[in-house]
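[audit] Reproducing an earlier prediction to check determinism. Same input, same settings, fresh worker. If the tokens differ from the archived copy the diff job will pick it up downstream; this log only records the rerun itself.
[audit] input (150 residues):
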Amino acid sequence: MTHEPADAALDRALDAALTHALVAPQLPAEFRARLQLALARAAAEEADGSHLTRLRQRLEREQGQQLTELQQSYVRLRRRTLAALVSGAFAVGAAAVLALPWLASHVGPLAPLVMSATGALVGLAVAFGGWSLRPGVALSAFATDRAHRD
């Protein structure tokens, strides 16, 4: 007398109920022959390595295309950044030319020093604002990191 686990008895009962309730679909006459042929072809491709070679070539080609797109995006970003810097420098220079006579009449001979100090403060404020608004970097994290280093 063999004792079966309860799961095996339940599995057999479920199989019997499914066999009774479901009808197996009809397969075409050449189904098994085509299946064997497809399996043999897949095994042959894997055995000679041509399948892997084609797959590797396709993946390398896709990686090359992605790298080309990334490099083109990088060049566009550099050009836009350069254009923004040149435009900003031109605008600041024009503003300084227009503001210096007015500032000289109100401040006197210290006007160039006041203009330079104002420009430096504005630049520092813009740099700090851009740095503190970076995604994933909080000012409190910077302060905590500095406290741990010191």
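[audit] rerun output stored. Observation attached for the diff report: The two ends are 77 Å apart (CA to CA).
[audit] end
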